[in-house]
Design a protein that fits this description.
The chain has a single domain, classed as 4-Layer Sandwich (Glutamine Phosphoribosylpyrophosphate, subunit 1, domain 1), CATH 3.60.20. Helix content is 39%, strand content 29%. A hairpin with a 3-residue loop joins strand 8 and strand 9. Helix 2 packs across helix 3 and helix 4 runs antiparallel to helix 5. It is globular.
Protein backbone atom coordinates (compact mmCIF):
# COMPACT_ATOMS: atom_id res chain seq x y z
CA UNK A 1 0.00 0.00 0.00
CA UNK A 2 1.34 3.44 -0.90
CA UNK A 3 2.29 5.62 2.09
CA UNK A 4 0.13 8.57 3.04
CA UNK A 5 1.67 11.66 1.44
CA UNK A 6 3.23 14.20 3.76
CA UNK A 7 2.14 17.82 3.01
CA UNK A 8 5.76 18.92 3.44
CA UNK A 9 6.74 16.59 0.58
CA UNK A 10 4.40 18.61 -1.67
CA UNK A 11 6.42 21.70 -0.83
CA UNK A 12 9.64 20.02 -1.91
CA UNK A 13 8.01 18.73 -5.08
CA UNK A 14 6.83 22.21 -6.05
CA UNK A 15 10.37 23.49 -5.75
CA UNK A 16 12.09 20.58 -7.49
CA UNK A 17 9.85 19.65 -10.42
CA UNK A 18 9.98 21.46 -13.75
CA UNK A 19 6.53 20.49 -14.95
CA UNK A 20 2.94 21.18 -13.95
CA UNK A 21 1.41 24.13 -12.15
CA UNK A 22 3.26 23.47 -8.90
CA UNK A 23 6.59 23.64 -10.73
CA UNK A 24 6.14 27.42 -11.04
CA UNK A 25 7.56 28.83 -7.83
CA UNK A 26 8.82 32.12 -6.54
CA UNK A 27 12.34 31.62 -5.19
CA UNK A 28 12.01 35.13 -3.88
CA UNK A 29 13.25 37.47 -1.22
CA UNK A 30 10.64 39.16 0.98
CA UNK A 31 11.15 41.60 3.85
CA UNK A 32 8.90 43.28 6.39
CA UNK A 33 9.78 46.15 8.74
CA UNK A 34 7.77 48.00 11.40
CA UNK A 35 8.60 51.61 12.24
CA UNK A 36 7.28 54.61 14.10
CA UNK A 37 4.48 55.49 11.69
CA UNK A 38 3.75 52.30 9.77
CA UNK A 39 4.95 49.11 8.14
CA UNK A 40 6.83 48.43 4.90
CA UNK A 41 6.64 45.08 3.11
CA UNK A 42 8.75 44.45 0.02
CA UNK A 43 9.61 41.65 -2.39
CA UNK A 44 11.55 41.19 -5.58
CA UNK A 45 9.76 40.56 -8.89
CA UNK A 46 11.35 37.37 -10.24
CA UNK A 47 9.43 34.10 -10.61
CA UNK A 48 11.41 30.99 -11.49
CA UNK A 49 11.43 27.23 -11.74
CA UNK A 50 13.32 26.35 -8.55
CA UNK A 51 15.75 29.19 -9.26
CA UNK A 52 17.01 27.47 -12.42
CA UNK A 53 14.88 29.19 -15.08
CA UNK A 54 13.29 32.65 -14.94
CA UNK A 55 9.62 32.39 -15.89
CA UNK A 56 8.48 35.94 -15.13
CA UNK A 57 10.25 39.24 -14.40
CA UNK A 58 7.27 41.24 -13.12
CA UNK A 59 5.70 38.98 -10.50
CA UNK A 60 3.95 40.93 -7.75
CA UNK A 61 4.56 39.16 -4.44
CA UNK A 62 3.12 41.81 -2.13
CA UNK A 63 -0.66 42.19 -2.05
CA UNK A 64 -2.97 44.42 0.02
CA UNK A 65 -5.52 42.74 2.24
CA UNK A 66 -8.04 45.50 2.88
CA UNK A 67 -7.06 49.08 3.64
CA UNK A 68 -4.73 48.57 6.58
CA UNK A 69 -2.83 45.36 5.94
CA UNK A 70 -0.78 43.57 3.30
CA UNK A 71 0.96 40.25 2.85
CA UNK A 72 4.25 39.32 1.16
CA UNK A 73 4.70 35.72 0.10
CA UNK A 74 7.25 33.21 -1.13
CA UNK A 75 6.28 29.82 -2.49
CA UNK A 76 4.13 28.46 -5.29
CA UNK A 77 2.34 31.01 -7.46
CA UNK A 78 -0.93 29.05 -7.48
CA UNK A 79 -0.86 28.69 -3.69
CA UNK A 80 -0.15 32.41 -3.29
CA UNK A 81 -2.96 33.56 -5.56
CA UNK A 82 -5.48 31.24 -3.92
CA UNK A 83 -4.35 32.25 -0.45
CA UNK A 84 -4.70 36.00 -1.11
CA UNK A 85 -8.25 35.53 -2.39
CA UNK A 86 -9.13 33.45 0.66
CA UNK A 87 -7.60 35.90 3.16
CA UNK A 88 -9.38 38.86 1.58
CA UNK A 89 -12.68 37.01 1.82
CA UNK A 90 -12.03 36.08 5.46
CA UNK A 91 -11.16 39.68 6.29
CA UNK A 92 -14.36 40.95 4.68
CA UNK A 93 -16.42 38.36 6.54
CA UNK A 94 -14.86 39.44 9.85
CA UNK A 95 -15.64 43.07 9.04
CA UNK A 96 -19.29 42.28 8.31
CA UNK A 97 -19.68 40.25 11.51
CA UNK A 98 -17.93 42.67 13.86
CA UNK A 99 -18.63 46.00 12.12
CA UNK A 100 -14.92 46.82 12.13
CA UNK A 101 -11.82 45.57 10.31
CA UNK A 102 -9.60 43.02 12.07
CA UNK A 103 -6.37 44.11 13.71
CA UNK A 104 -3.16 42.83 12.15
CA UNK A 105 -2.71 40.23 14.89
CA UNK A 106 -6.19 38.86 14.29
CA UNK A 107 -5.58 38.74 10.56
CA UNK A 108 -2.28 36.93 11.15
CA UNK A 109 -4.11 34.30 13.20
CA UNK A 110 -6.64 33.83 10.40
CA UNK A 111 -3.82 33.53 7.86
CA UNK A 112 -2.04 30.96 10.04
CA UNK A 113 -5.23 28.89 10.32
CA UNK A 114 -5.51 28.87 6.52
CA UNK A 115 -1.91 27.70 6.06
CA UNK A 116 -2.29 25.13 8.83
CA UNK A 117 -5.19 23.58 6.91
CA UNK A 118 -2.72 22.20 4.35
CA UNK A 119 -4.34 23.91 1.38
CA UNK A 120 -1.33 26.19 0.78
CA UNK A 121 1.67 24.01 1.69
CA UNK A 122 4.38 25.95 -0.12
CA UNK A 123 3.82 29.42 1.37
CA UNK A 124 5.99 31.38 3.77
CA UNK A 125 4.27 34.67 4.63
CA UNK A 126 5.06 38.07 6.07
CA UNK A 127 1.98 40.03 7.12
CA UNK A 128 2.10 43.69 8.07
CA UNK A 129 -0.51 46.01 9.49
CA UNK A 130 -1.64 48.02 12.46
CA UNK A 131 -2.52 46.81 15.95
CA UNK A 132 -2.10 49.35 18.74
CA UNK A 133 1.10 50.13 16.84
CA UNK A 134 2.66 49.01 13.53
CA UNK A 135 3.32 45.26 13.50
CA UNK A 136 4.92 42.56 11.35
CA UNK A 137 4.04 38.86 11.64
CA UNK A 138 5.98 35.93 10.22
CA UNK A 139 3.79 32.94 9.31
CA UNK A 140 5.42 29.62 8.42
CA UNK A 141 3.93 26.80 6.29
CA UNK A 142 2.91 24.86 9.41
CA UNK A 143 0.82 27.79 10.68
CA UNK A 144 3.23 29.17 13.26
CA UNK A 145 2.93 32.90 13.95
CA UNK A 146 5.71 35.11 15.29
CA UNK A 147 5.41 38.85 15.91
CA UNK A 148 8.61 40.71 15.08
CA UNK A 149 9.96 44.17 14.33
CA UNK A 150 11.52 42.97 11.08
CA UNK A 151 11.72 39.73 9.14
CA UNK A 152 12.81 38.21 5.84
CA UNK A 153 11.60 35.21 3.89
CA UNK A 154 12.28 33.21 0.73
CA UNK A 155 15.43 31.81 -0.80
CA UNK A 156 17.33 35.06 -0.25
CA UNK A 157 16.34 35.48 3.39
CA UNK A 158 19.79 34.81 4.89
CA UNK A 159 21.35 37.50 2.72
CA UNK A 160 18.49 39.90 3.43
CA UNK A 161 18.78 39.36 7.18
CA UNK A 162 22.41 40.46 7.03
CA UNK A 163 21.37 43.79 5.52
CA UNK A 164 18.48 44.19 7.96
CA UNK A 165 20.70 43.50 10.97
CA UNK A 166 23.10 46.23 9.85
CA UNK A 167 20.57 48.93 8.99
CA UNK A 168 17.31 48.42 10.88
CA UNK A 169 16.60 50.35 14.05
CA UNK A 170 13.34 50.56 16.01
CA UNK A 171 11.32 53.69 15.35
CA UNK A 172 12.58 54.45 11.84
CA UNK A 173 10.37 56.73 9.74
CA UNK A 174 8.71 55.48 6.57
CA UNK A 175 11.32 56.80 4.15
CA UNK A 176 14.07 55.08 6.11
CA UNK A 177 12.09 51.83 6.27
CA UNK A 178 11.59 51.86 2.51
CA UNK A 179 15.27 52.49 1.92
CA UNK A 180 16.35 49.68 4.26
CA UNK A 181 13.88 47.27 2.64
CA UNK A 182 15.03 48.14 -0.88
CA UNK A 183 18.71 47.71 0.02
CA UNK A 184 18.00 44.35 1.70
CA UNK A 185 16.38 43.09 -1.51
CA UNK A 186 19.25 44.39 -3.61
CA UNK A 187 21.81 42.71 -1.37
CA UNK A 188 19.98 39.38 -1.53
CA UNK A 189 19.68 39.50 -5.32
CA UNK A 190 23.46 39.91 -5.66
CA UNK A 191 23.96 36.26 -4.68
CA UNK A 192 20.53 34.58 -4.79
CA UNK A 193 19.79 33.46 -8.36
CA UNK A 194 16.06 33.16 -7.65
CA UNK A 195 15.68 36.83 -6.66
CA UNK A 196 15.85 39.97 -8.81
CA UNK A 197 14.17 41.91 -11.64
CA UNK A 198 12.73 44.84 -9.70
CA UNK A 199 10.59 45.04 -6.59
CA UNK A 200 7.19 45.79 -5.12
CA UNK A 201 6.78 47.75 -1.89
CA UNK A 202 3.71 48.22 0.29
CA UNK A 203 3.64 51.09 2.79
CA UNK A 204 0.95 50.61 5.43
CA UNK A 205 -0.19 53.51 7.64
CA UNK A 206 -3.36 54.72 9.32
CA UNK A 207 -4.25 56.32 5.97
CA UNK A 208 -4.26 52.98 4.16
CA UNK A 209 -1.93 50.86 2.03
CA UNK A 210 0.12 52.30 -0.85
CA UNK A 211 1.67 49.93 -3.40
CA UNK A 212 4.57 50.94 -5.62
CA UNK A 213 6.69 49.03 -8.12
CA UNK A 214 10.23 49.58 -9.40
CA UNK A 215 11.97 47.99 -12.37
CA UNK A 216 15.24 47.81 -10.45
CA UNK A 217 16.36 47.03 -6.90
CA UNK A 218 17.87 49.21 -4.19
CA UNK A 219 17.38 52.62 -2.62
CA UNK A 220 18.50 54.44 -5.78
CA UNK A 221 15.66 52.82 -7.71
CA UNK A 222 13.21 54.20 -5.15
CA UNK A 223 14.73 57.66 -5.46
CA UNK A 224 14.43 57.49 -9.26
CA UNK A 225 10.75 56.53 -9.04
CA UNK A 226 10.11 59.35 -6.57
CA UNK A 227 11.90 61.79 -8.88
CA UNK A 228 9.86 60.68 -11.88
CA UNK A 229 6.63 61.09 -9.89
CA UNK A 230 7.65 64.59 -8.76
CA UNK A 231 8.54 65.54 -12.34
CA UNK A 232 5.16 64.35 -13.60
CA UNK A 233 3.40 66.39 -10.91
CA UNK A 234 5.37 69.51 -11.86
CA UNK A 235 4.39 69.07 -15.50
CA UNK A 236 0.70 68.77 -14.57
CA UNK A 237 0.91 71.94 -12.46
CA UNK A 238 2.66 73.80 -15.26
Amino acid sequence: MDPIPNPRDRTRTSEESAGGTRGLTTGTTTVGLAGADGVVLAADARASLAGRFVTNRSMRKVEPVGDGAAVAFSGGVGDAQGFVRTLRAQRRLYELRHDRPPAAGTLASVAAERTRSGRFPSLWLLLGGLDDEPAVYEIDPAGGVMATEYAAGGSGMQLAYGALERSYEPGLDLDALRSVAAEALAGAAERDAASGDGMTLATITEDGTAIETCDELGARALEAVAGDAAGATDEEVA
